[in-house]
Design goal:
Elements lengths: L4 E6 L16 E5 L2 E5 L1 H13 L8 E6 L4 H7 L6 E4 L3 H4 L5 H4 L10 E4 L9 H13 L5 E7 L28 E4 L5 E3 H7 L11 E5 L11 H11 L10
Parallel strand pairs: 1-4, 1-6, 4-5, 7-10
Antiparallel strand pairs: 2-3, 6-9, 7-8
């Protein structure tokens, strides 16, 4: 049986590391006689719309989750008529120490069995990438999945400084190291009820989540620091319309 999946885009205005990163203009485009600002939020909402209108859309629900207190985000989201808006409570956007169940308490408002998240801070992930992942997840036997990148490098524990990578100490080539997999922080899927019953997305046992290896790409650029926001801005300069990124 195919899965019932909701694609959810959680967004909030407050950012501790990059000031106003969701709404700060990255570029502009012409639309008739008006000029429109392009920002991380508008890029993400545009991607959602492209997924919603695709003939290959695998999702049963497509929605953005925003707190009513984030008035600028809410106003922008309402311009995208194809996208459902789910209201988040204040704690889910303001308290960094909240539990998984607390942060995503708004998911109690929907009844889809499975959730797939979209990260608004990754503007170059294509609509077709989410469609491909959603189609795989919908038809797969797995209860969860996580897109990852294969890494062969030296990784050390942040506190003990102990080498975490398993390797022969006499080996000097990273190509002979055991692979480590790095999470791509968007598109991961899980059972909705697990959040509220177990306060987690996965059991972190084999195949929960199922690890889906992806190829390195500009798509995985994630804006967590100011320099990354500026890099996205530079990459967008000179582009004529948003659609070419999706």
């Amino acid at each position: 049986m195919e899965k019932d999946i909701a694609l959810i885009l959680p967004m909030r205005e407050n950012s501790t590391r990059v000031k106003d990163k969701m709404l700060r203009p990255l570029s502009h485009r012409w639309g008739g006689t008006e000029t429109y600002s392009i920002c991380l939020a508008s890029l993400a909402l545009g991607t959602l719309c492209n997924i919603a209108q695709s003939d290959n859309n695998p999702f049963n629900r497509i929605a953005v989750a925003i707190s009513p207190k984030d008035k600028r985000l809410m106003k922008l989201a309402k311009e995208y008529k194809r996208i459902e808006i789910i209201e988040r409570d204040d704690n889910s956007v303001s308290n960094e120490k909240e539990t998984v169940a607390g942060i995503h308490s708004y998911l109690k408002k929907i009844d889809n069995e499975y959730i797939m998240f979209m990260n608004a801070c990754m503007p170059f992930v294509k609509a077709n990438t989410y469609i491909k992942w959603g189609t795989f997840f919908r038809k797969s036997p797995y209860i969860s999945f996580m897109p990852v990148l294969k890494r062969r490098n030296y990784f050390f524990d942040g506190e003990t400084k102990k080498l975490l990578t398993e390797m022969n100490p006499e080996c000097t080539s990273t190509t002979k190291m055991n692979a480590t997999y790095e999470c791509i922080h968007t598109g991961f899927g899980f059972q909705r009820e697990k959040i509220f019953k177990e306060n987690r997305y996965w059991t972190l046992t084999p195949y929960d989540p199922y690890i889906m290896q992806c190829q390195d790409s500009k798509e995985w650029l994630d804006v967590d620091e100011e320099w990354q926001w500026k890099l996205v801005k530079d990459l967008l300069v000179g582009q004529l319309h948003v659609g070419m990124f999706h």
